[in-house]
Amino acid sequence: MNSLDIEGSKFTPRVLCDLDHGTVLIAGYSYPENAIGFYRPLLDWLGGYLERDGAAPLQIEIALIYFNSSSSKILLDMFDLLDGAAAAGRKVGVQWHYDPENETALECGQEFKEGIVHLSFALVPGSA
Amino acid sequence: MDCDPFDIWQRCSDPGLLFYLRGPLSQDLLVTIADTLARQMRLDDAGTATVIKVQAILVELSQNIARYSAERVLDRDAVNGDAGLGCGVIAVGCTSGSYSIASGNLMDEGQVPALRALLDEIRDQDADRLRAMFLKRRRNPSASKRGAGLGFIDVARKASGRLEYHIRPVSPGRAFFSIRVMV
Lengths: 128, 183
Prior knowledge:
The structure holds two protein chains of two kinds. By secondary structure, chain A is an alpha/beta fold. Chain A contains three helices and six strands; from the N terminus they run βββαβαβαβ. Helix content of chain A is 36%, strand content 30%. A six-stranded mixed beta sheet of chain A has the order 1-2-3-4-5-6, with helices on one face. In chain A, helix 2 links the parallel strand 4 and strand 5. The interface between A and B is medium-sized, with 23 and 27 residues.
């Protein structure tokens, strides 16, 4: 498998997955018409990475300014995947970055965090 | 076609009206509107939280029209191919720092009872119950018949006050649905 690099647009986030370092960045706006179509490569990459032997711990930085309801469902699926991996003993961590002036971004992060059991999930004010 | 720009200009001269569209809601158009509106709002000193909420509501309502409107045009580039592109109305206004976002579209009469039930349930909930509804629905999407449900709950959460909606019959088998939300 390779690293993944998807450029951002006004309505889709920058997605950067570094295979060697185990780092993932998801940043910007997310309101594509077809959320699963957009996020499929990322979900596949994460699934693949979490099955690699001897891989570095997975560190995910998320800095989403706004995401629509269909993106929200996909993010939930992603956190389920990561939480499952953490439960199975994989080292995975998420940092949810938010602008303190954007209360929606903080609330959304808190809501995802509440649904998580094993995954390390930190809410971080400021940019990624 | 009998269209006089002066006539339209006169009829849409409400100083509180920021933006008005009647037509197909393509993704490209939505992105341009959302982006332009955000810029205008920042110039008017709207806070970040308000800009995000107005953008969010605009996106959810517009994408509902694109996906579910009974009035459609052919669009080969549309993500859902043969289903074409939904048409409707979007209007954004501002009066004394309070923003209103409204949308409207044709719908099938058969879908009306389910939509009424959903919106009647949503609009009377407080913030905590809306949050619980949102999280439950997001967790179990197959339990909902209409994909638009999560979007409407999201809209209600971001709105100040109660969402207003109307559904009126317009022709056999067709009704017009409109919704208005304040931020």
